[in-house]
Amino acid sequence: MVREHRGFLRKKLKNFDATMEEFSDLAIVVEDEKFHISKLFLSDQSTYFKSLLTRNQEESGKPEITLDDCKSEDFQYFLELIYGESPINKETIDKIVHLADKYKAPSAIRKCEEFLINNSGKTLKEKLQMAKKYKLENLKTACLSKIKTVEEIRSVLSYTTSEMDPSVVGALLQKSLSLLP
């Protein structure tokens, strides 16, 4: 299936539509779009869904869960990632890491963090902000290791240090002291 995204057509990397219904035991509805998936696989990938599905265990028949707080396109990217595809790029990373964090999906978070470290195109400051927001320690360490000059320290500083991770502020102070003559 092809879906329009920002004026261009994007082919879905994996289908979760009605063609997968007979192979699934769970339907998740997002913005009136049904995603047919495996409860076992989803609960193995996400502690959020594991908890949700465990609470709803009494239900007989095929459960259907409605998610009101995300977009179907973003949920498609999230599912593609946990099912082994690579939907991460500079346009999708923010959406995917948000859902991976929200739905407590460690392998998806790890893949997002690897992308951010290796090839996201984001600035060091943006990456450090994401590292703080989503508790991405490897990303934080990678960013700090790239900072070598006073200009690079300035480039990552926020006007209000309350926005910054205290450990980053401390590391930047240490780096700045090492740069003094």
Automatic annotation (TrEMBL):
Q: Which organism is it from?
A: Caenorhabditis remanei (Caenorhabditis vulgaris)
According to UniProt, the name of this protein is: BTB domain-containing protein
**InterPro entries reported in the protein's UniProt record:** BTB-MATH_domain_protein, BTB/POZ_dom, SKP1/BTB/POZ_sf
Domain spans labelled BTB? 24-83
**Superkingdom in the source lineage:** Eukaryota
PANTHER family, sorted: BTB AND MATH DOMAIN CONTAINING-RELATED, MEPRIN/TRAF-LIKE MATH FAMILY-C.ELEGANS
